Every structure is written in C-alpha cells, then in structure tokens.
Amino acid sequence: MKLGFVSMPVTGHLNPMTALARKLQSRGNEVLFIGLPDAEPIVRAANLNFVSFCEKEYPFGSVANGVAPLAKLHGLDVVEHSAREIHPGRCKSALEHLPEKIAEAGVKGLIIETTQHFVELVSMRLGMPYVHIWNILHIDRSGSSPACFFPWPYETTPEALARNVEGLKKFGGLYAPILAVAKSYAEMNGLQIDWNDPTATVSKLAVITQTPKEFDFPISNWPPQFHYAGPFHDDEGREQVPFPWEKLTGAPLIYASLGTLLNGIEHVYRAILEAVGRFPDTQVVLSVGKNIDPDDLRPIPSNVIMVNTAPQIEC
C-alpha cells in the first residue's frame, strides 16, 4: 500500500514524521511525502521519496519568512497569529492541490500531522483511509483536562471542568479563519459534516500521539482509536549539522533549546545562561535557532557552547 505523508514543513515536525515513515517503509510499505518545497531537504536526508506541491504559493524559503514572527510570541498569541496569518492560506492551498498530487502518485492512504489542518477533507472526499499524528502536545477536546495552551492544573471539580470547556471554546474561536476555509471546501464538494462536533473530521482509524502516557493527565475517556506512542526517532535519516566537536570536554553535558518556532525570546535564554553558569563542572550546548544573534546574549559562561543548530541525537 502506498502511503502519503503530509506534515508541517519545519524541522521539529518533519524529524518525527520522517522517523515514522522510515519505520513504516522498513515494514514493506511504500512511502511518499507530499509537502511544500522547504520540506524537501529534510525528507531527502531521511532517504524518503518526496513530491512538492503549492510551489507557486509557497516557493522555497517562504516557510522561514512566514513563521519568523512567531519566534518572539508566547502562549495564545502564537495560536492566534498562526490561525490568522499562516494556517488559512496553507489549508486552502493544500485542499486545492493535494487531490491532484495524490492521483498522480497513486497514494492509497494518508498519514496526516494534526497541524496540517483539515487536510483530512481531501481523504473524505476521495473515500481514502487516513490517520492523524500528534507531533505537538495533543488536545483533549472533551474538557476532561485543560488544553495544553493553558497553564491550568488537572482538577475534576465541576468548576474546573467548566473552565476547561470555556478554554476550548476560546481556542476554537481563534481557529475560526481556518474553519471558514474548511467549511467552504466541504460545501463545495458535498461533504456532510457536523461542524458542532469538534471531532467530526478526526480519523476513526487511528489518532497517535508522541506524548508518553505517563506524561499525560489521567484521562480515561479517550476514544478507542487514540494511542500513546512515545517519541518518534531512529537515530538516523537527518541532515548533517556542523558542530565544534573539539570543544567538548567530557564533562556532564546539558542540551538546551527553545525548539523550532518559538526560539526568539531573549529573556529565556538569559535565564538559561545565568542558571548554567552556576554549574561550571558541566558543559552546555545551547541551540538558539536563526532568530537570535548570539552576540546579543553576551556574556556567555565559559562552559557554554552556543550554536544556531545542533545535532541533537549525536550530542
């Protein structure tokens, strides 16, 4: 069976998706990534087949420019900006161009990352099986626990459950621009969807999260197709990243990073540098991404190696 993978085109999302694809490929499945041009180098480094789409709307280099404003945002501001400025356009383009690519490639099923919002509508239109993958923290849409965007504790009181539901409503309101794109596509293609049900388009076959069950709240009412899997990585299949290996001293090593997108918050880096400077017997690799000038964070403790990108698994 030929499986198509659709993923958010940034490193922190593509690395686990390519690891999953490599595992499925090793079990005899034919695998193909369908993505924006910026995803191609990462997918090719994983020795996987790739075909691009939406080249006109999102030429190579456009993704970094599009997500750069997220670097200095925090909390729901990130969600609001993404839902207003990034995801509606990507959703519209994907829904427009994905059916043609699926037909050309002979794909028979889709593996969809949840941040590729409403791509499943294409599968529904084509009568094609699909599953969903949570590479970010999954969201409990039942209200039994607080959504990961909110800093609320897990509680089971009626007040807490009502708070969780209100939080989900607020979150859903932020995503109205994406929902408008999805509704228009569904109506145009004759898809009957109960939009009052937030899980109406979620895969009925499998919903898989990287989050280990032990790290989650004690939720007992997940649907039967929901599965905890733990991190997706296989120690291989990544782009080569230059690193000053000669600077490693053999001291206990600490790795610090703010991730792929929200990596421009200077005061957090300063807090890290202040903290690790108190432990001179350790060595720290601090990866700051492309949205921070390392010179702006000086002075740097002598036990810190600061880089834009680090080979995480090798370190």
Give descriptors for this structure:
315 residues, alpha/beta, seven-stranded parallel beta sheet
Describe the structure.
By secondary structure, the chain is α/β, with parallel strands linked by helices. The chain has helices spanning 11-26, 40-45, 62-67, 76-105, 120-126, 158-174, 176-188, 266-276, and strands spanning 2-6, 30-35, 49-52, 109-113, 130-134, 207-209, 226-228, 253-257, 283-287, 304-307. The protein has a seven-stranded parallel β-sheet, sandwiched between helices. Strand 4, helix 5 and strand 5 (130-134) form a beta-alpha-beta unit. The longest helix is centred in the N-terminal third of the chain and has 30 residues, at 76-105. It is globular, with a radius of gyration of 21 Å. The two termini are 36 Å apart.
The outline comes out as globular
Query: Number of DSSP strands?
Result: 10
- In order across it, which strands form the biggest sheet? 3-2-1-4-5-6-7
Average predicted confidence as pLDDT: 93
Figure out the total of helices: 8
Using the CA coordinates, give the radius of gyration.
21 Å
Largest sheet: 7 strands, parallel
Estimate the helix proportion, in percent. Answer: 25-40%
Span between termini:
36 Å
Structural class: alpha/beta
Task: Tell me the β content.
Answer: 5-15%
- Extract low-pLDDT stretches: none
H and E string: EHEHEHHEHEHHEEEHEE
